[in-house]
């Protein structure tokens, strides 16, 4: 999930001073925000929990890119506060997707496999394009590498959604969609919680006087 591998993707000042790097991050931010909006709407209309879970992934990525562009050069306290908001949002959204998957499991709603495949393919195209744009930075510093790795892993998640759509089409059952949704929502909850916990710890450490810490 984006929040596991991109937790450190706030970027250093040196990284963010690269105009090409900043331009790519802006493009990635816009694409990920747009895909979040598209997938959450189509996921609800098509009754696809895996699309809703993938929308969570796009939300996490968009938040990471926004933090990289907006607050990376600020003091740790401000970065921690922003990350806390991001982590809390992803955590709440992940719980919502998990609840939606549980509801689908109980009521047996069958998603639209055509919508799953179409939107999943578009999401794959977006993530693959971002990964290609970031490819030249794959051997850069840790922050550059982490953002590229996240985009690459997101493309793999999209393949899961497409595979779930094909399985639904073949079997006529919504179970494959629910299985993928459970996996992705669980990863989202885990990633969001890690961010919240780390942010709280950083804020706590920031407020402890040097004499006490030392």
UniProtKB/TrEMBL annotation:
Instruction: Show the Pfam families listed in the entry.
Output: Cation_efflux (PF01545)
Subcellular localization, per the record?
Membrane
GO MF: zinc ion transmembrane transporter activity
- Residue ranges of domain Cation efflux protein transmembrane in the record: 25-72, 83-203
UniProt keyword terms in alphabetical order: Ion transport, Membrane, Transmembrane, Transmembrane helix, Transport, Zinc, Zinc transport
Query: Does the record's keyword annotation contain Glycoprotein?
Result: no
Report membrane topology.
Multi-pass membrane protein
Q: Which interval of the chain is the signal sequence?
A: none
Q: Output the Gene Ontology cellular-component terms.
A: plasma membrane
The regions listed as transmembrane in this protein's record are 24-46, 58-76, 88-108, 114-135, 155-172, 178-196
Asked if the record carries the keyword Metal-binding, the reply is no
User: Major place of localization?
Assistant: membrane
Note the superkingdom of the native organism. Answer: Bacteria
Protein name as it appears in the record: Cation transporter
Q: Which organism is it from?
A: Sphingobium phenoxybenzoativorans
Q: What is the lineage of its organism?
A: Bacteria, Pseudomonadati, Pseudomonadota, Alphaproteobacteria, Sphingomonadales
């Amino acid at each position: 999930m984006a929040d596991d591998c991109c937790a450190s993707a706030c970027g250093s000042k040196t990284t963010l001073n690269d105009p090409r790097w900043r331009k790519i991050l802006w493009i990635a931010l816009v694409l990920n925000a747009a895909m979040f909006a598209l997938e959450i709407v189509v996921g609800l209309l098509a009754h696809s929990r895996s699309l809703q879970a993938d929308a969570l992934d796009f939300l996490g990525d968009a938040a990471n890119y926004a933090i990289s562009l907006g607050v990376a050069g600020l003091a740790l306290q401000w970065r921690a506060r922003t990350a806390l908001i991001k982590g809390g949002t992803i955590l709440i959204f992940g719980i919502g997707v998990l609840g939606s998957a549980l509801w689908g499991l109980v009521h047996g709603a069958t998603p639209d496999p055509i919508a799953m495949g179409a939107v999943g393919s578009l999401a794959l195209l977006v993530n693959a394009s971002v990964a290609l744009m970031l490819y030249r930075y794959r051997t850069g510093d840790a922050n550059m590498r982490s953002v590229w790795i996240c985009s690459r892993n997101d493309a793999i998640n999209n393949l899961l959604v497409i595979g779930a759509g094909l399985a639904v089409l073949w079997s006529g059952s919504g179970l494959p969609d629910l299985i993928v949704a459970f996996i992705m929502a669980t990863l989202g909850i885990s990633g969001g919680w890690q961010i919240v916990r780390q942010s709280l710890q950083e804020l706590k450490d920031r407020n402890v006087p040097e004499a006490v810490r030392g």
